[in-house]
Every structure is written in C-alpha cells, then in structure tokens.
Amino acid sequence: LGVSESAAWDILTQSHELSQCLSLRQLLLLAVRLGVPALSLLSEPPTAAPEHRSLVQLAGEIQTYCAVHHLSVEQFGDRAGWDVRQFLVAPDSALDDWCLDTLADICRTVGLHWPEYLPE
C-alpha cells in the first residue's frame, strides 16, 4: 500500500486511524486486496450509499454550494477544514490527496452523505 511501518502499526492497533492514515486510493486498494467492501473496514461503518456519485459530481456540488452561500473557494476550505482548490481543478487528485476524514468533512459541510462519493 505504500504506507510507513508506523502508519501500518497505527492502522492495526487503532481502528480510527484507518480514516486518517490512508489516502482514498490506499483504502480502496486495501479493500480490494482483502476482498471486502471499503466501508466494512471501518470500526463504525456508515449506512451504505443508495447510489454512487463521482468525484467530478462532488466538485460540482462544492461549486454550487459556494455560489449559493456566496463563498470563495478559500472560504469554503476554511469552513470545511480542508483546502479544495486542487480538487476543484482535478477531482481525481482526491484519490491520493485526501483521506477518508477529508471526504467526510467536505461532504458534511455541503450536507451530503459521504459514502456516495467514495470511489468504487
């Protein structure tokens, strides 16, 4: 997966670390290698997504949210706690740049159910 030994130890000994130590790509790769759904790896899995949406759609939702709430991208990032500028330019960058907590926080800010946007 390309994680350090200390990150692997954290993941094995503290289940909440899974959502912080792995990028979205690493999480999905781990799920594939274990032959399980990615959400099943979480200690408290959320309800499953009724439908799957893409990262491109999430970028559009963020842009719409910013327009409706009269926020700049920087202000949205302050509100969400994460910088989304690169994501809005290249949504697939989230696979390597974001962890599960990032996805969840950003979706929560927009009022979205984050498992819908977890890539398959």
Key phrases:
about 120 residues, mainly alpha, 8 helices, globular
Cα separation of the termini: 17 Å
**Largest sheet: number of strands, sense, barrel closure:** none
H/E series: HHHHHHHH
**Poorly predicted tracts of residues:** none
Instruction: Give average pLDDT, whole number.
Output: 88
The number of E-state strands comes to 0
Q: So how many helices?
A: 8
Oligomer description:
single chain
Classification by helices and strands: mainly alpha
Helix content: 55-70%
Structure, explained:
- The protein has 120 residues and is mostly helical.
- The protein is built from 8 helices and no strands.
- The longest helix has 14 residues, at 55-68.
- The protein is globular and about 45 Å long.
- The two termini are 17 Å apart.
- The relative contact order is 0.18.
- The mean pLDDT is 88.
Short structural description:
55% of the residues lie in helices and 0% in strands.
Topology diagram in text:
Blueprint (H helix, E strand, L loop, with lengths): L4 H9 L4 H4 L2 H11 L20 H14 L4 H8 L4 H5 L4 H4 L2 H11 L10
